[in-house]
Amino acid sequence: MGTGRLSIDLQAIVANWRALANLAQSDAAPVVKADAYGLGIGPVARALAQAGARKFFVAYAEEGFTLRRALGPGPEIMVLSGHMAGDARALAECRLTPMLNSVDQLTRHLESLPDHPFGVQLDTGMNRLGMEWSEWAAVAEIALSQNPVLLMSHLACADETDHPMNAYQLDLFHQMTDGLNVPRSLAATGGILLGSDYRFDLVRPGIGLYGGLPFDQAQPVVTLDIPVIQVRDLQEGEVAGYGNAWQAPRPSRLATVAAGYADGLLRSLSHRVNLWHGDVPCPAVGRVSMDLIIVDITDLSDDPESLRVIGPNQTVDQLADAAGTIGYEVLTSLGTRYARSHRE
Ligand SMILES: *Cc1c(COP(=O)(O)O)cnc(C)c1O
């Protein structure tokens, strides 16, 4: 049964992908790294492939291996970490396309897998992955002679529309790639929303597919319901949870539910989040523990069988706000104990 029921709306993911592709007016390759942001790479990628997606991004060759088994031979699978030591076999056998990030990776790739497709990631100021301009200048001729399938870069501040870094990176990307006659990609979800200048030939939406900000037009994708294990009554002044961190301000009825910080309901949510019974908010009380959360259900007329953590009354981003983090981290922290169901 698992600790809770995590329901994932595949049609909403497909609709979000179509909406972003439509906005971008370019090829939109879903980013399904980290198990499709925790939502299940197999079902998510199959639904997108069925809807027409032909290119996908993963972070690591290992994830590409999983994805190739899920999708079969057709779609192109691109690996953002490039060609790391030990990757050659997986890249070759699963026909994965690495985005080469450094001169070392380019050398490794051309030596171990000549004639195997690749792209190049360029660093335009984020200083995370990719070749800097001087490195690119030194190897561009060799790289271009092998027909790379893509030149890409990544924006550091795309979720801040007015940040001057966006225009700076756009300009540098133009200078590094104009006139080279290779398909280009700069935008993830945030970049797509910055405007047509940022969209180039291919966009790489991740979080927007899964219903998260900054794509505020996204259809919601996730609902999460947690079963109640036990219910009890407290007198005013009694305490609950680790450290006696909560004291009943009135006679109270408490429900203990079957999920905790090991299931992505971060400990920083303690005292800061509601679980929902229909439209009635029920505040979590005491500290979130590893497997359990205590909830004040005094205001409910009947004991609930389960309470909802993510749904129409509380989005992933609202939950993230309460925890002091971002929607990406909430989704990828959900863990493996929930019973997942993928609605077609
Ligand atoms: C994760 C990632 C993406 C997707 O980003 P979102 O903000 O989730 O849309 C795109 N490109 C690169 C290089 C990434 O690392």
Automatic annotation (TrEMBL):
Pfam families associated with the record: Ala_racemase_C, Ala_racemase_N
Entry annotated with the keyword Nucleotide-binding: no
Pathway note: Amino-acid biosynthesis; D-alanine biosynthesis; D-alanine from L-alanine: step 1/1
Class in the EC hierarchy, top level: isomerase
Isomerase keyword on record: yes
Annotated family: Belongs to the alanine racemase family.
Purpose: Catalyzes the interconversion of L-alanine and D-alanine. May also act on other amino acids.
Name of the protein this chain belongs to: Alanine racemase
